[in-house]
Amino acid sequence: MLRDAGPKPVSILKIDKDCHVEDEWLSDYTRLVITTCQQHGVNVKRIKMCRSQRKGLHFYVDIEPSIEAELANELQWLLGDDCLRVDFNRARVQSKLDEWNKLFEVPNVRFRTIYRAKQGD
Questions:
Q1: Is residue 45 part of a domain?
Q2: In total, how many domains does the chain have?
Q3: Which of 13, 16, 24, 87 has the maximum number of C-beta atoms within 10 A of its C-beta?
Q4: CA distance 111 to 72
């Protein structure tokens, strides 16, 4: 059954970065993610990272509260998500697909948590 309202709200932002960076850069990126999300009324609970299937890094940002797909796609773009992916995601959202936000991982990928909010934050 199709829903008229569009995709369900999401609680995970997915960002595809087609590059590898030094670990020292990750703390700056973490601050950028937290600040950008806060400016849009979203709290970051955790950030996980893994290598992408092809050429770079994937970031998974656990957020609260859950947000609508349009805002999630905008935040992903602001956080440096691959621009072509942003365009495809916009079309999927407009088509009201619940599975609009896919990333493809290497089988048995290992995630690394690079940020976890303190209890009470």
A1: yes
A2: 1
A3: 13
A4: 21
